[in-house]
Amino acid sequence: MSSPSSPREQWGSKIGFILAAAGSAIGLGNIWKFPYVAGENGGSAFIIIYLICTAVIGLPVLIGEILIGRTTQLNPVGAFRALSKSKFWAGVGGMGVVAGFLILSFYAVIAGWSLGYIYESISGGLFAYADPTKAADHFIELTNNVAWIIGYFAAFMILTMVVVFAGVQKGIERGSKIMMPLLFLLLIFVMIRGITMEGSSEGLKFLLEPDWSHVSGQTVLIALGQAFFTLSMGMGAMLTYGSYMSKKTSIPTSALQIVILDTAIALIAGIAIFTSVFAVGLDANAGPGLIFHTLPAVFTKMPGGEIIGPIFFILLTIAAITSAISLLEVITAYFVDEKGWSRHKAVLVFGGFTFILGIPSALSFNVMSNFTIFGLNFFDLVDYITSNIMLPLGGLLIAVFIAYVWKFDKALVELKNGAENIFNNYPLLITLWQIFIKYFAPVLIFLVLLHSIGLLDFLSL
Ligand code: PFF
């Protein structure tokens, strides 16, 4: 473990942490993934399960993850080791670093699509495809083009590397402060247009009338995975951001703000997409291409769509960058803290490796589309293993670690820093947090994971 001679960099302000952490949380997971995964899994029934997972498991574990980071001021591996002196727990941190690397490899491919769509919408390419079926065909044509998909993937990786190169405060914080509020506003515009489109009520029905017949154990696992993915939880990204946080900031309040913002954005994006999907007669089940099929049709039906279209994709790309940098930051912090690498070397080497690993994911939409493992193409497989297995497992282990290894007597002393007000005035909330971390989160995640691999089939749930 290194002991840096200069004090560890910290966020410039309280709002700096919230914005950066919200920047990590809010990204393609909310705007690209949430609508298509909800669409594939039955709409509102899925959304209700996702909301329950977020409240019951997401928020308590998020508080715990940030707390471990702030207490130790270290990367995931160093943090677990510092609090437990055990190789096993350092390995849990290591699993987070690996998950970050895997997620970034496919995340940057989709972010590349968003980057490519900035050009499509500025050049008028999108507006030539006002007819939604043509827009969908155009998307398929673009993603079938290996040079297009790899080229934009590479460009996005370079953008991300440049920001992480610049360092925590200058790069990450400054960008988030301006872009996040803008994205929020624009999404609200798109949602209003979606709701006011003729035929949008079918979409609202899809969002509001739960159809439980689609729900299975798999659905619950996917909803849980989505809750973890969208909150950047279970792999050390929030732990790493917490390590730059001041002890004067309240962790429970910050975590709650992040959860509310992140969930609100996902729901707004969901309403915007589903009202539009049904209004223009597209298929809610379209998979990863869903927003790219749908949004062009919405923009062409919006006054000022020629301008709003490009701005939307610019902001979506920026939201993806603020998430991608948190993924690369986990890997970078590990190699800087633990292996004594320079920041620049870590970014260059792992940016490069991530690109290589992402190539088969990019090719899953074209030349490798028939190559499947367990019935999933490479892209879906990496997504499934990370989001639905590694992140929930990471969350389970974080909860177990706090309750049974680190123990509450020590954890609560740290949690109290900056949160004296909650400890003094609402002690019940603190007790509830302990109950959720000690019993609910580990048991629920364990059951969902067991069920997903078929071990609870005898219960015929
Ligand atoms: N939360 C991000 C999103 O919703 O787009 C994705 C993500 C970022 C997942 C960072 C995990 C992570 F560590």
Describe the 3D structure.
There is one protein chain. This protein has 461 residues and is mainly alpha-helical. It has 19 helices and two strands. The protein has helices at residues 14-25, 28-40, 44-72, 76-84, 87-122, 132-144, 146-165, 168-196, 201-208, 217-230, 237-242, 251-279, 290-300, 305-339, 343-363, 378-406, 408-416, 420-425, 427-452; strands spanning 372-373, 376-377. Strands 1-2 form a two-stranded antiparallel ribbon. Helix 3 crosses helix 10 (217-230), helix 10 packs across helix 19 and helix 13 runs antiparallel to helix 14 (305-339). It starts with 13 loop residues before the first helix and ends in a 9-residue tail after the last helix. Mean pLDDT is 88; it is low at 1-6. 4-fluoro-L-phenylalanine binds next to helix 1, helix 2, helix 5, helix 10 and helix 14.
